[in-house]
Amino acid sequence: MSDGLTIMLNGDIAKKLRSLQAKKINETSSTVSFSRIVNEVLEKA
């Protein structure tokens, strides 16, 4: 189950996350949500 949460991101961090999202989209044939990228990065930290 996922919880709704609002966060404020630094512009540079958001750009890096969007870049990771674009890379994942190019590697797969499916959609990749921004929240999925954020969750993956936070799980690795």
Output the helix-strand order: HH
Low-confidence stretches: none
Radius of gyration from the alpha-carbon trace, in angstroms = 11 Å
Number of domains: 1
Please summarize what this structure is.
With 45 residues, the chain is mainly alpha-helical. The protein has two helices and no strands.
Layout of secondary structure:
Blueprint: H1 11-27, H2 34-44
Structural summary, described in words:
- The protein has helices at residues 11-27, 34-44.
- With 45 residues, the chain is mainly alpha-helical.
- The protein has one domain.
- The longest helix is centred in the middle third of the chain and has 17 residues, at 11-27.
- It starts with 10 loop residues before the first helix and ends with a helix.
Descriptive keywords:
mainly alpha, 2 helices, 45 residues, 0% strand
